[in-house]
TrEMBL record:
SUPFAM superfamilies listed in its UniProt record: P-loop containing nucleoside triphosphate hydrolases
Ranges for domain ABC transporter: 2-252
Family per similarity comment: Belongs to the ABC transporter superfamily.
UniProt topology in membrane: Peripheral membrane protein
Organism: Streptomyces bingchenggensis (strain BCW-1)
MF term (GO), any: ATP binding
Name of the molecule in the record: Oligopeptide/dipeptide ABC transporter, ATP-binding protein-like protein
InterPro entries in the record: AAA+_ATPase, ABC_Ni/Peptide_Import, ABC_transporter-like_ATP-bd, ABC_transporter-like_CS, Oligopep_ABC_C, P-loop_NTPase
UniProt-annotated location(s): Cell membrane
Pfam (any one): ABC_tran
Gene3D superfamilies attached to this UniProt entry: P-loop containing nucleotide triphosphate hydrolases (3.40.50.300)
UniProt KW Nucleotide-binding keyword: yes
Tagged with keyword Endoplasmic reticulum: no
GO BP term, pick one: peptide transport
Length: 332
C-alpha cells in the first residue's frame, strides 16, 4: 500500500537545519492499522504531513521516497498531490475545531470534499454527506449536517473530520492524534469508528499517537519513533509485551499499572527529548539511556536482533542486558 524509504524532513530554523525526520523506512500494508508512537517532538506529525505534501515550503527540505500507487509522493507536483489528498489519502487532524471552517455548516464541508473529487450535483453530495455522518455514529445526522462546528461537541467534530476523510473511500487514512482532548468514553467511540472503517472498507490507517492505550486497542503493528528515527517496530503484541529497545521499555514503564501494588511514584525516562538542531552521531537515545555503552557511539541499524520475525529494533544491547532493562521498565 505505502512504502517509505529513507524519508528525511528538515526545517530551516534560526539555529540551523532541524532534522525532524531522519532517515525513516516504513511499510504500510493494505487494510492494516499501523500506529506511529513517540513523545511530542519525535517527528510523527512531520512524517505524516510530508506524505501528502502538507508541510512543503521554502524552509522545508524533504528527500527520500514515498511510493504510493506507483507514484513517488516526494517528487510529485502540487497539482498531482491535490488529486491524491482527500481522494486516495485522507487526513484526520488532531484539532477538529481548528481544522473545520467555522463559517460553513458541517454537512457542507463534507459535501465539498465529495464534489472536489467527483462530478456530482450539490443535492446528491449533501445526501451522501448525511449518510457519512450517520456511518461515523452521529445521532441525528440531518441536524448535525445543518450545525456549525462550534455547535457540535468535541467528539462530534472529530467524527465530522472522519466523515470528511471517508468521503471518497480513500485507500489510506492518516489519523493524527484523533482522540486528543476527548474524554475516555468519546475516545472509545472514535476508536471503534476507526476500527470499523478499517474492517468494513479495507482502509489502511496510519495512526499517529503517544497514547499506548489507544495503540493496544486498535493497532495491528507499531512503530516507535524517537528524535526523527524509528527505533523499534513489529506486531502490537511483540512491541507491547516483549519490547526490545530501552526507549520503548521506558514508555511502557511510565504507564500506570491497573493491578499490583500502588506505586508512590511512577517511573520516568530521565532527561528530555532531543529538540535542537544538534544530534549525537550514534544512538539518539543514548544521552537518556541508563544502559548506554561504548557501542552506542555508532548509529545502530534498524534490524531484527532478538525479537521474533518482523520485530525490528535499533539497539546494540546484548540479550542479557535487554532482559535486565525490560525488568526495570527501561529505567535505572
Amino acid at each position: 500500500m505505502l512504502e517509505i524509504r529513507d524519508l528525511r524532513v528538515r526545517f530551516d530554523v534560526p539555529a540551523g537545519r532541524l532534522p525532524a525526520v531522519d532517515g525513516v523506512d516504513l511499510t504500510l500494508r493494505k487494510g492494516e492499522v499501523l500506529a506511529l508512537v513517540g513523545e511530542s517532538g519525535s517527528g510523527k506529525s512531520a512524517l505524516s504531513m510530508s506524505l501528502v505534501g502538507l508541510n512543503r515550503g521554502p524552509r522545508t527540505h524533504i528527500s527520500g521516497e514515498v511510493s504510493f500507487g506507483g507514484r513517488d509522493l516526494v517528487t510529485a507536483s502540487e497539482r498531482e498531490l491535490r488529486g491524491v489528498r482527500g481522494k486516495d489519502i485522507a487526513v484526520v487532524f488532531q484539532d477538529a475545531l481548528a481544522a473545520l471552517n467555522p463559517l460553513h455548516r458541517a454537512g457542507a464541508q463534507v459535501s465539498e470534499m465529495i464534489r472536489a473529487h467527483r462530478d456530482v450535483e450539490r443535492e446528491q453530495a449533501m445526501s451522501r454527506a448525511v449518510e457519512l455522518l450517520s456511518e461515523v455514529g452521529i445521532a441525528g445526522p440531518d441536524r448535525a449536517a445543518r450545525a456549525y462546528p462550534h455547535q457540535l461537541s468535541g467528539g462530534m467534530r472529530q467524527r465530522v473530520m472522519i466523515a470528511m476523510g471517508l468521503a471518497n473511500d480513500p485507500a489510506l487514512l492518516i489519523a493524527d492524534e484523533p482522540t486528543t482532548a476527548l474524554d475516555v468514553t468519546i475516545q472509545a467511540q472514535v476508536l471503534a469508528v476507526l476500527k470499523r472503517i478499517q474492517r468494513d472498507h479495507g482502509t489502511s490507517v496510519l495512526l499517529i499517537t503517544h497514547d499506548l492505550g489507544v495503540v493496544a486497542e486498535v493497532a495491528d503493528r507499531v512503530a516507535v519513533m524517537y528524535a526523527g528515527r524509528i527505533v523499534e517496530q513489529g506486531l502490537r503484541e511483540e512491541v507491547l509485551f516483549r519490547p526490545q529497545h530501552p526507549y520503548t521499555m521506558g514508555l511502557l514503564g511510565s504507564v500506570p499499572p491497573i493491578d499490583g501494588p500502588v506505586l508512590r511514584r511512577l517511573p520516568t525516562i530521565s532527561g528530555t527529548p532531543l529538540t535542537g538542531v544538534g544530534r549525537p552521531p550514534g544512538c539518539a537515545f543514548a544521552p537518556r539511556c541508563p544502559f548506554a555503552h561504548a557501542a552506542c557511539a555508532e548509529r545502530p541499524a534498524l534490524r531484527q536482533r532478538y525479537g521474533h520475525d518482523g520485530h525490528l529494533d535499533a539497539c546494540v544491547l546484548p540479550g542479557p542486558a535487554r532482559a535486565t532493562a525490560r525488568s526495570q521498565g527501561g529505567n535505572a
